[in-house]
Design goal:
By secondary structure, the chain is of the alpha+beta class. The chain is built from 9 helices and 9 strands. The protein binds calcium ion (2 copies).
Length: 324
Amino acid sequence: MLNKRIISAAAAVVVALGGFGAPVFGGIAQNFDIAASAISYNYKDFKANCIARGATNRMIEELDKFFLPNLDYFTAADYAAFIDGTDTLYNQFMRQACEAAYGKDPALLSDEERRAVIRSMTQKNQMKAYEYIRSVGAKHGVDVGYTYDEQKRLVPVCTITKSAVPEKRYIKVDVRAAEGEAVDYSELTVSIVAPNGKTFTQDVDSEGKVEVTDLLKTGYTVDITMPGYAARSIAYDGTNDLSNVAIAKYGDLNGDGLIDIEDLLLMQKKVAGWQVDDAIVYPEVANVTADVEGKVDLEDLILEQKAVAGWNVTLGVLVVPIND
Ligand SMILES: [Ca+2]
Ligand SMILES: [Ca+2]
């Protein structure tokens, strides 16, 4: 708990003092972008708290610069800690200063007024804040050092040490395509859904890889969708191997990227009650009528037959009977 309080406080110091000048405090801000990828708290929450506690626009920009590329370095607990710390800093530095100068809480001041308050702080308070940030950093694997810029002004230099960086984990989606068929990974969506329904949609790289460090937890669900492909929803139990998760087109039961007689035969067997599940890439591809119950029956078979015969039918689109 102490660590949490301190690191948040450090972030808040960064925020509170940002107005002293970007060359001095920008570096700290950038390097405290650390806490941003948690579940219960995330960077957005932290940022909102910084604003409420008196951060200047300039500081928020600097925080974004550092945090956005480093979201995976910190946990939900870190974010909670940053928020606590922002509160501590607010209590130690910002609140009294703002009330003394304007008789108002920092949240009610304009950006210009906030900057004026920060400029009015003493050198001694600045150094106190530095030391605070430094001690927080040390406890969370962030090495806060100092150097001088061209104008001989003290500049903090922060680096994240190895021990604080969790091993990166990935989900790799294997989009099944026919030989020579181009796959547009920009159409692929991978989301992590928390038990409370909160959804984190992750960036997918050009090979179908998605980083999930610190995000994927037992009890969460991985949802994978792509137009024309049968959606997959995987309950994560802490051990699932997600290094090679196939998704295939509706009707492509064997997952070779083509919809042909082989898939039709598999579906015939399945509808007839044969045990062919091991040969089917995952169950949803066979439900070509896309009914929500996920049934694979004669209706699917008829539709698949038409597709294989070259009829102009679309697989994977829910067909609503006229009588409904
Ligand atoms: Ca196939
Ligand atoms: Ca069906």
